[in-house]
Amino acid sequence: FAGVVYNYDQEGVHRDARGWEQCISIPLLQPDMGELLQHWDSLLEEFSLEEAWFPHRYEEQQHNCYTFALAFINRVRQGRGGAALSKAEFTERFVLARSREAARYLRLQQQLEHSDVLIVPLAEQEQES
Question: Where does the record place the MKRN2 opposite strand protein-like C-terminal domain (predicted)?
Answer without folding.
Answer: 2-112
